[in-house]
Amino acid sequence: MVSVAVSKMGMTELIFVQPGVKVNRQYYRDVMLSQQMLPAIKHIAGDAFMFQQDSAPAHRACDTIQLLQQETPDFIGMDLWPPNSPDLNPVDYKIWGVMQQRVYERRVNNVNELKQRLIAVWDGMQQNVIDSAVDEWRKQLRACARAERRQFEHFL
C-alpha cells in the first residue's frame, strides 16, 4: 500500500506500508498519521491545511477521528463526506492515474522494481499536475452535490 498527501503548497513523499503489515486503526493512527503523514503535511503547510480522507475502517475509528480533530486545523469529518468517494479525492480521481500511466510505460518485473519506479515517477511529478487536480476538486464537489451523492460524471 502507498499513501500520499497533496496540496497546492506541495506534496509529501510516498508513504509505503511494508508487505504483510495490517493497516488497522492503531497502525494507521500511530504510524501512518502520527509519525509520517501529519509531520510531513505540517512541514509543507504549517498550520494552514485541510485534511480529507475516505471512510476506510482505520480512517473512521473513533480514536483516529479524535486525533485528526486535535491535530489538524481543518478536518473534514465523516458527517460531511460521502462514505465511498474516490471521485472527490484529487489523488484518486487524477494523480494515481497519472502515476499509473507513467509507471507502466515499461513492464514491471517485480515488487522492488515497482517501488523504485513509483519513487522515481513521484520524484519527477510536476507541481502543476497536483495543482490541476486540486483545481478540479470544487468542480467534483459541485457535481456530487447536484447529483445528490449518486453517480455524477454526467455533471462534469
Strand-and-helix sequence, N→C? EEEEHEHHEHHHH
User: Helix count, per DSSP?
Assistant: 7
Structural class category: mainly alpha
pLDDT below 50 for ≥5 consecutive residues: which ranges?
Answer: none
Strand order of the largest sheet: 1-4
Percent range for helical residues?
A: 40-55%
Termini gap: 30 Å
Name the beta content range.
5-15%
Number of strands: 6
Q: What is the count of distinct domains? A: 1
How large is the radius of gyration? 16 Å
CATH homologous superfamily label: Ribonuclease H-like superfamily/Ribonuclease H
Mean pLDDT: 89
> Main sheet, how many strands, which sense, barrel?
2 strands, antiparallel
Indicate the multimeric state: single chain
CATH class category name: Alpha Beta
Molecular shape: globular
Topology:
Blueprint: E1 2-3, E2 6-7, E3 10-11, E4 15-16, H1 25-45, E5 50-51, H2 57-60, H3 62-71, E6 74-75, H4 90-103, H5 111-123, H6 127-135, H7 137-146
Parallel strand pairs: 5-6
Antiparallel strand pairs: 1-4, 2-3
Helix pairs in contact: 1-3, 4-6
Protein described:
The chain has about 160 residues and is mainly alpha-helical. It has a single domain, classed as Nucleotidyltransferase, domain 5, CATH 3.30.420.10. It contains 7 helices and 6 strands. The protein has helices spanning about 25-45, 55-60, 60-70, 90-105, 110-125, 125-135, 135-145, and strands at about 1-5, 5, 10, 15, 50, 75. The strands form 3 sheets. A two-stranded antiparallel sheet has the order 1-4. Strand 2 and strand 3 (about 10) form a beta hairpin. Helix 1 (about 25-45) runs parallel beside helix 3 (about 60-70) and helix 4 (about 90-105) runs antiparallel to helix 6. The mean pLDDT is about 90.
